[in-house]
Design brief:
single chain; about 210 residues; mainly alpha; two-stranded antiparallel ribbon; 7 helices
Length: about 210
C-alpha cells in the first residue's frame, strides 16, 4: 500500500525547510553554516546506509532531512547578510562532527554509518542550539517543526523494527524537539510585560 502519511510528512518537512530558506534569503534568519553544512551531509549518508540495508519509504524523511539543509545552505551564500558569524565553539563542533564521519568511513556497516551520522548531526546542532538561546531572533522555527513532523511520519512506513529503519527517524524527532524548545520559549511574554497594540513589550511600570 502506498505510504501516504510518510509522503505527506516528508512534504511538510520540506515545506518547513523552504520557509526557512525564504527567511534566509530575505535576511531575517541567519543560519549557522557549520550546523547546516553537516546537516546536509550526515542525513544523506544515513539515507544511503538505510537504503543499502533495505529500508525504502521509511527512509524518505531522512533524505528530506539532508536535501532541505542543502537548499538553506545555498540561500545563506546567496544573501551575504544571511549567515551567523562563526565562533570557536562552531569550529570545534564542526571538527568533531567531521571526525565522526571519518571514523565511520573505516567501516562498511550500514548501522555504523547511521549511528555516526546521528552523532555527527548531534554535534553539529550544538552551535545552533547555543545561538537559539543567545539570539533567538536570528532563527526560524519552521524547519525544526517540519523536521519533527517528518521524523514522526517515518514510523508509519516501517516494515522491520530494526536500527536502520528507526534509529535516524528517532534522532530526527529528538533533535527537532531540542531545537524547537528555545524558540517556543522566546514567544512567551516575560512576567510583568504587557503586549501593546503592535506587540511591543510595555512593562507594568510604564
Amino acid at each position: 500500500m502506498f505510504p501516504v502519511i510518510v509522503v505527506i510528512g516528508s512534504l511538510v518537512g520540506l515545506a518547513g525547510m523552504l520557509v526557512y530558506m525564504r527567511n534566509t534569503l530575505v535576511g531575517g534568519t541567519k543560519p549557522n553554516r557549520v550546523s547546516w553544512l553537516i546537516w546536509c551531509v550526515a542525513p544523506l549518508i544515513a539515507f544511503a546506509a538505510a537504503w543499502d540495508a533495505g529500508v525504502r519509504w521509511a527512509a524518505l524523511p531522512t533524505f528530506v532531512a539532508g536535501f532541505g539543509p542543502c537548499l538553506v545552505l545555498g540561500a545563506s551564500f546567496a544573501n551575504r547578510n544571511a549567515y551567523w558569524k562563526l565562533e570557536r565553539l562552531d569550529y570545534v563542533c564542526g571538527a568533531c562532527a567531521f571526525l565522526a564521519l571519518a571514523l565511520w568511513a573505516i567501516t562498511s556497516d550500514p548501522s555504523v554509518a547511521i549511528v555516526f551520522s546521528m552523532m555527527t548531526g548531534g554535534l553539529a546542532s550544538v552551535p545552533t542550539i547555543v545561538k537559539e538561546w543567545r539570539s533567538p531572533e536570528t532563527e526560524s522555527i519552521s524547519a525544526y517543526l517540519g523536521g519533527l513532523v517528518s521524523g514522526l511520519s517515518a514510523f508509519t512506513a516501517v516494515t522491520a523494527w530494526n536500527l536502520p529503519s528507526v534509529a535516524y527517524p528517532s534522532y530526527m524527532v529528538l533533535i527537532s524537539v531540542i531545537l524547537v524548545a528555545p524558540l517556543l520559549r522566546r514567544r512567551k511574554p516575560k512576567p510583568g510585560v504587557n503586549q501593546g497594540p503592535k506587540g511591543h513589550g510595555v512593562t507594568d511600570r510604564e
